[in-house]
Structures are given as C-alpha cells and as structure tokens.
Amino acid sequence: PNTVSGDVTNLTFTGLTTNGTTLNWTDNASNEVSFLVTRATDAAFTQNVVNSSVASTTSAGIGTDYVSVQTGLSAGTIYYYKIAAVIEGGLSTGITGNQSTLNGATYYWTGATGELWNTFANWNTAADGTGSVPTAWATSDVHVIDGSGITPGGDLSISVDRTSFTLGQIKIISNTNLSLASSATATRTITISGGQSDDFVLEAGSNLNLTSATNAIAFAFTGSGNTGTLAGTYVASGSTSNNISTIGGTGTLFTVTSSGNITSNLNSSSACITGNATNLLFQNGSNYTQSNNTTV
User: Fold this and answer.
1) What is the mean pLDDT of the chain?
2) What pairing do the DSSP bridges indicate for beta strands 21-26 and 9-14?
3) β-strands 217-221, 243-245: how paired?
4) pTM score, whole prediction
5) Distance between CA 164 and CA 201 in Å, rounded?
6) End-to-end CA distance of the chain
7) Measuring CA to CA, which residue among 79, 15, 35 is closest to residue 223?
8) DSSP state of 79
9) Does position 1 have pLDDT exceeding 60, yes or no?
10) Which DSSP category does 240 fall into?
C-alpha cells in the first residue's frame, strides 16, 4: 500500500552542545523502510534545508526508538526539524519540533594595544576585566573588541598569533579603530562559524584596518545561515590577501549598511571583499571606494 500505517511519535532532543544535538523519536508505523529527517533554520522549512535518511531496522513492528545525530550547527541558533516515516511511493505527515543550540562563551578584549590575540590574559568574560579569562578556545566563542584595556574605543592594534582558526562571532564596537595583522609573514584566516544574531559586526563609528603588506588577515564564513553587518569603516591595503570573503557556508548574508564604508587600495579584481548577489548586499547610501573610484 502507498499509505503509511502510522506516524512518528515522541520527538525529543538530547546531547545538546554549541554545535550539535541528537534527535530521538519512536517508530509507530509497521511498513516504513526509512525515516526522512529534515532540518532548517525557519519553521516553514525553506531556509538552509538539509535532508538525511535513517534506515528502519524493524519495518514490520512499532515502538522502536531511533536517533539522528546532528553536527556542524551554529551556536545560539534555533533549528527546526521534521521526521517522517517513508514507504515506497509515499511518506507520513511527520512530527516537527525545534531546538536551539547552546550559546558560545563571550570574551571581551581587555589587553593593551600591540598585544597578542592568543594570550588568554588579554580576553575576559567581562568588559571591565572583572570576569574570568579563557582557558581554551572553542569554535563557538564570541570575541568582542571594544577598545584597548578596559577603556572603550580609541586606537587598537592586535597581532594575530593563532594559526588560521575558527570562532563563533566577532564584533568590533564602541568606536574602536582596530588594526589587525598576522604575527608572521603568512596570512591568518579567521573563519566565522556563527551564533546568535549577527556573526560579523563592524559597528557604526568603528573601523577595521587590514593594511599589512606582508602579514595579512582574512575573514571567511562556514556553517549555515550566518550574517554579517558592516556599518562602520573597513580599510584594506598592502596585500591582496587582506580580505573578507562572504561566499563561505550556506545561506550567508553579509550586509554593508547605509552608514558602511569600504576603502580598498588594492589593485585586484577581487579587491578587499568577495561575494555575489546572493550573499553580499550593499544598502542604499553605503560607499565603496576602489583605487579612488567611488560607487554609491
């Protein structure tokens, strides 16, 4: 028959982490061949959709429990799931549910200008330095850069001495004029895996300067549904490896807002930011200057 004899029941979530969870459900059909597991980042199942299949081990019986381990998720993000029993020629209505991954730890830069990124003592869970310092890095960490020491804003340079690495989010705020450079003559790539709200933030009034000719810094995205907001000023020069790439991951959307300004002094077709019409949006009023030619 092309009708499923029963539907999936008892959807629960266990093993919740910043980047994964385990789906648990009970088989209530006696003629299924497998189960279709659908994941999305919206309740209508239209955004960042991922499908997977779990084979049935007891097609003729009911009451068997099944699991599906979900990995590679973004921290602090709500994911929507649907599980349906599959037969040849059809599938059940299915059961739906949603679960948010855990938030990553947030660390504020409290080091002096010119200090090293990889020194734990330069980061703190409190902006005023009264919290705790990290003891290990995680790919879900949120890094907030809001000035030198515990004073908001002003000029700040950080030497990135971590080999290319992944974090959850980076936020440059509080009118900070930030210069980043690799500690070695090799490009350091900072990959953003995502979290709650915007994942790359350059706040209005803040600046990001990637200007070293030999010690370049690049930004990239991975994961699904990540967003970036550039409302301040981004300046790149020196090396064509100084770059923000918005084409990584699935469903990435990077927005240069109406107050955003980008200046590239690089003689390169890719300039200092790469993307396409799907994942890179310039709002009306934003400015991009390339070799002294401005587009608005």
Assistant:
1) 93
2) antiparallel
3) parallel
4) 0.81
5) 20
6) 61
7) 79
8) E
9) no
10) T
Q: What is the mean pLDDT of residues 270-275?
A: 84
At 35 the three-state DSSP class reads strand
- Residue in this structure with the two tokens 């990290």, named with its chain if needed: 134
Residue type, 46: T
Beta bridge partner(s), residue 217:
188
pLDDT of residue 75: 85
> Which one, of 280, 218, 283, 223, lies nearest residue 253 by Cα?
280
> Which amino acid belongs to residue 33?
V
**Which residues, 6+ apart, have CB-to-CB distance to 262 below 8 Å?**
230, 233, 234, 235, 236, 256, 272, 273, 286, 287, 288, 289
CA–CA gap between residue 111 and residue 118 (Å, rounded): 11
Which strands sit side by side in the sheet containing 169-172, from one edge to the other? 123-124, 106-109, 142-145, 169-172, 200-202, 227-230, 253-256, 280-282
Q: How confident is the model at residue 258 (pLDDT cuts 50, 70, 90)?
A: very high
pLDDT, average across residues 39-47: 94
8 A C-beta contact, residue 253 and residue 276: no
Cβ pair 194, 224 in contact under 8 A: yes
Cβ atoms of 173 and 179 closer than 8 Å: no
Choose among 156, 138, 135: nearest CA to 146. Answer: 156
Residue partners of 269: CB distance under 8 A and separation at least 6: none
Provide the pLDDT for residue 4.
80
- As a whole number of angstroms, the distance between CA 60 and CA 53 comes to 18
